[in-house]
Amino acid sequence: NAEYMGGRCGTFVFKMAEWAALESNPEVLTSFMHDLGLAKSWGFTDIFGLDEELLSMVPQPVLAVIFLFQDKTTHADSNTTPITEPSTGIFIQQTAELGNACGTIAVLHAILNNPSSISPDSILATFAGQLNMLTASQCAQALHANEAIKSKHRSYAQEGQTAAVADNEVEYHFVCFTNLNGTLTEWDGLKRAPVSHGSTTPETLLVDTARIIKQEFLAKNPDSVQFAMMALCALEQYY
Questions:
Q1: pLDDT (tens digit per residue) in 159-175
Q2: Whose CA, among 13, 22, 149, 162, lies 20 to 30 Å from 228?
Q3: What letter would DSSP give residue 217?
Q4: What is the pLDDT of residues 21-55, one digit of tens each?
Q5: What predicted TM-score, i.e. pTM, was given to this entire model?
Q6: Annotated catalytic residue: which of 9, 102, 139, 233?
Q7: 173 tagged catalytic
């Protein structure tokens, strides 16, 4: 039986090659992304479970869902359909030079594939413009080379409540889900392309993602009993 980890995703920490550890705490990530150019009306919040009542507590609209799970897979594409056309959003490959940057990559996938959430003339706006039409590996190179993002990243390192996990401890992996032109799309930097999970709408993205998480992750990985989720959603004070 899958068990929600309780508290927040901040129980776990992701690290990037050459970058200081950064905790996946929603408040820290919101401040970090606001500094990079996420519009102030958007931010990250915990999702406390997969049942309807808990999902209804998440502020709407939801632009993306970040899913953290115990990773025991090879990350081969499943029966779902990889999306390979170059016009289907921004996809950043998790290359060796980015180390265990799955958390940062997942957060960037959430925002970069929702361009209306990005403030004009910001670091994120400039970065998004640089990534248009690049391959996934080229996007990874651009991230690794982006000194503006690295500088902001360092300033938020270790602002969370826990220390970085050791490399030899249990691995947890972050993936992102968004609505890409009416398609529920999974963004996993360890896969060869974004993955389609069928149709969705802005109103049903959260519920549709919860269904896919149950079917494609929890049911197929019964030994992976712990998970956590965050939503990129409207901040209540702005709506």
A1: 654 444 444 444 678 89
A2: 149
A3: I
A4: 566 789 988 998 999 999 999 999 999 999 999 99
A5: 0.86
A6: 102
A7: yes
Whether 233 sits among the annotated catalytic residues: the reply is: no
Considering the candidates 109, 144, 173, 197, report the single residue annotated as catalytic.
173
The answer to whether 189 touches 102, Cβ cutoff 8 Å, is: yes
